[in-house]
């Protein structure tokens, strides 16, 4: 199901209580990882090559406000600049709605070389700041 084409108060999402927002290509490229989350998540797809992150953020923020899910999970492939944006977008949404839905937990995953990797929020925050990444790389080289 496409995120931008569903109702922000979708009854099924509320009943399931967990939302999976995944990069559209994941379902076809890595079905085994996609299916792992289907067991207990309401799955919605998006592709930030085709949809603007502001539209995705507004829709997701409205969903979280209405549904108050126990968890929002992001699943993308690693290395795609558009998929990185999806993680950043959801993290921004988290900051916007955390007082409206403080019980919602956020988890971030990427698929890299056939491996499912959970990504800490700090990585997503850092990925927005190229100067911080430069500093971390320099410290690694010097240390």
- Measured between the Cα atoms of the first and last residue, the distance is 47 Å
| Percent of residues in β-strands | 15-25%
Side-by-side strand order of the widest sheet: 2-1-3-4-5
Query: How many separate domains?
Result: 1
Mean pLDDT: 95
Shape: globular
Helix count equals: 7
Sheet/helix structural class = alpha/beta
- Poorly predicted runs: none
What can be said about the biggest beta sheet? Answer: 5 strands, mixed
Q: Would you give the CATH topology?
A: Beta-carbonic Anhydrase, Chain A
Please give the radius of gyration in angstroms: 15 Å
CATH architecture: 3-Layer(aba) Sandwich
Overall number of strands: 5
Q: What string, H for helix and E for strand, traces the elements in order?
A: HEHHEHEHEEHH
Helix content: 40-55%
Name of the CATH first level:
Alpha Beta
């Amino acid at each position: 199901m496409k995120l931008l084409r569903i109702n922000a108060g979708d009854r099924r999402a509320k009943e399931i209580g967990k939302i999976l927002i995944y990069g559209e290509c994941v379902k076809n490229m890595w079905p085994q990882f996609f299916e792992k989350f289907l067991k207990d998540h309401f799955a919605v797809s998006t592709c930030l090559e085709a949809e603007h992150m502001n539209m995705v953020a507004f829709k997701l923020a409205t969903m979280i406000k209405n549904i108050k899910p126990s968890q929002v999970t992001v699943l993308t492939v690693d290395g795609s600049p558009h998929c990185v944006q999806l993680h950043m977008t959801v993290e921004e949404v988290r900051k916007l709605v955390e007082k409206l839905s403080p019980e919602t937990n956020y988890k971030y995953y990427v698929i890299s070389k056939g491996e499912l990797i959970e990504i800490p929020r700090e990585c997503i925050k850092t990925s927005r700041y190229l100067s911080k990444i430069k500093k971390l790389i320099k410290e690694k080289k010097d240390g």
